[in-house]
Amino acid sequence: MTAESLQILTLAGSFFALTFLGVPISVAIGLGSFLTLLLSFGFHDAAFVVAPQLASGLQSSGLLAIPLFILAGNLMNRGGIARRLVAFASLLVGWMPGAMAHITVVANMLFGALSGSGVAAAAAVGGLMVPEQDKAGYDRTYCAAVNVSSCSTGLLIPPSGALIVYSLSSGGTSIAALFVAGYLPGLLMGFSVMLAATFVAVRHKYPRVTYPPFSRIVRIVLEAVPAALLVFVVMGGILSGIYTPTEASGVAVLLSLIAALIYGEFRLRDLPEVLRNSATTSSIVLFLVASSKAMAFVIAYSDVPFAVETAFRSLSENPVVLLLALNLVLLVVGAFMDMTPAILIFTPIFLPVAVGIGVDPVTFGIILVFNLSIGLCTPPVGAALFVGASISGVSIDKLTRSLIPFFLALVAALQFVTFVPNLSLMLPRLAGFIH
Q1: Does 49 reside within a domain?
Q2: Which residues constitute the domain of residue 318?
Q3: How far is Cα 326 from Cα 311, in angstroms, rounded to an integer?
Q4: Fewer CB within 10 A of the end CB, N or C, for the chain?
Q5: 194 near 102, Cβ under 8 Å?
Q6: Distance CA 255, CA 374 (A)
Q7: Contact indicator for 186, 56 with CB cutoff of 8 Å
Q8: Contact yes or no for 177/139 (Cβ under 8 A)
Q9: What angle do CA 30, 32, 34 make, to 5 degrees?
């Protein structure tokens, strides 16, 4: 056995063993990397290699956007924005068959994009929609499946924390280009769920919604304006070059606080708790980033990307076959691992494979996040699946069966994003972020 093979086995084996024993995944990543380096350097030198890698992993100014967007999302969660967006979504798609399902999808797209969290969207939107769906006579399992399968659309529609993490772990892919690239795939993701929901709704003859009086419609639109302005100002500033994505995260925090105060469901006395929760979440993510930097060094040192690319090339030289295999692997990864550690671990492994067959790093980032977003709603560890089941009060097994048509729709949309790269690259090219 070669030294590289032994290092790869040690890295993978120690990581999975520690994870199986219940060690936090960020700690498992760091310890697995350290144990692998022990094979080559010994304790003293291995410590001196790992420590600078942990520190350098946190020395990117782009990392500042992560805690700020997390804080902005928490302010939105507490500020009553979800309820306003649900009401606004009902005006947009209430005329469609199975209107409650389509309202859920659109609200998840809007709220998920604002909050940057699929799980938060599933909890907020699902909690608001369950009573209304019950009144309209909808099947709870069907509605829960729509909520779970659509909550992760906001992870592609900017501003997206997942795309920021990918940018950092890919070695500096433009965050602005990734943000703009996520629009059309994110919309396609939502529309694919709506298409599957329509087929089920027509078969069960689920009703449309009754539109409110004109005065109520005007009030709903006006109440949605602060949330809409938030997206417009944040992304408009990035596209126009007024500020960077990192600076935009600070703008998002300020505007989220103002919007929450305007809606009247947030008080300044709530701010310490929001700050504390945001700091806790941010520390977990940043520790993951730091430990993953050490693992990225070990992966490169052990020639893991070359070994993976060789393994893929042994399957076929056909790029179509290789991309299908890559999607299959990432779908399995997403089913067993949370998004942030999966991006940090597998980007340095699979990005060279994708680039080697002609995939642009921006396109691969969208493909990667799309795959892992689907994993949020699939067993055995899909966080959105368990949140959606809890909110709606349905069992995991019933919900999983109801998710099948939506899962198939999402996989079909994923293939479209994979094999039509212009869907991701058209807007960044028009904006001048890539050539």
Answers
A1: yes
A2: 57-266+302-431
A3: 11
A4: C
A5: yes
A6: 30
A7: no
A8: no
A9: 70
SS3 call for 178: helix
For 84, the token pair is: 């306003």
Tell whether 138 and 184 lie within a shared domain: yes
Structure tokens that stand for 41 in this block: 């350097």
Whether 257 and 383 share a structural domain: yes
CA 131 to chain centre: 27
What's the CA gap between 68 and 247, in Å, rounded?
A: 9
The single residue listed with the structure tokens 């479209």 is: 416
Identify which of 24, 232, 99, 160 has the alpha carbon closest to the alpha carbon of residue 107: 99
Q: Do 193 and 334 share a domain, yes or no?
A: yes
Cα(1)–Cα(302) distance, rounded to whole angstroms?
13
How many domains does the structure of the chain reveal?
A: 2
Closest CA to 287 of 11, 29, 2, 76: 29
Give the DSSP letter of residue 209. P
271 in a domain, yes or no?
no
Give Cβ neighbours of residue 174 (< 8 Å, ≥ 6 apart). 167, 362, 428, 433, 434
Asked if 15 and 304 touch (Cβ cutoff 8 Å), the reply is no
Count of CB atoms situated within 10 Å of the CB of 81:
28
C-alpha torsion angle, residues 113, 118, 123, 125 (rounded to 10): 40
| pLDDT tens sequence for the chain (435 residues) | 566 677 778 777 887 888 788 888 778 888 888 888 887 777 777 777 777 777 776 776 667 777 888 888 778 777 777 778 778 888 888 788 888 888 888 888 877 777 666 777 777 777 778 777 777 788 888 888 988 898 888 788 887 778 888 988 888 888 889 989 999 999 999 999 999 998 888 887 877 777 778 888 888 888 888 777 777 787 778 777 787 777 888 888 888 888 888 877 788 888 888 889 888 888 877 887 788 778 777 777 777 777 777 777 777 788 888 899 999 989 888 877 778 888 888 888 889 889 988 899 999 999 999 999 898 888 766 777 877 888 788 888 888 888 899 999 999 999 999 999 999 999 999 888 887
Same structural domain, 165 and 42 = no
Residue 273 lies in a domain: no
CB atoms within 10 A of CB 32: 25
